[in-house]
Amino acid sequence: MTNIKMGLTIEEAAEMSGIGRNTMRKLVDWGKLPVLKVGRKTIIRRDALENFMTVNQGRNLLNQADVREVR
């Protein structure tokens, strides 16, 4: 049985999605991507990341106004 993580760190989410770490941090800071905070650690749910990528397909993730928020 393979153990698939439901929650990803910013670094893991960036690597998995191909989005840069700094851009991933911006998306979190802008409130576009929902996260769980565990102390200083930020966790992004895998399903939220997949939904975010679907909703924002074809959009410029470096332009805050162009990014659609995911809840």
UniProtKB/TrEMBL annotation:
Entry-linked InterPro entries: DNA-bd_dom_put_sf (IPR009061), HTH_17 (IPR041657), SinI_DNA-bd (IPR010093), Tn1545/Tn916_Xis (IPR038148)
Q: Give the range the annotation lists for the signal sequence.
A: none
The entry lists its GO molecular-function terms as: DNA binding
Domain (Helix-turn-helix) spans: 8-53
Alphabetized Pfam families for the sequence = HTH_17 (PF12728)
User: What's this protein's name?
Assistant: MerR family transcriptional regulator
Organism name: Ruthenibacterium lactatiformans
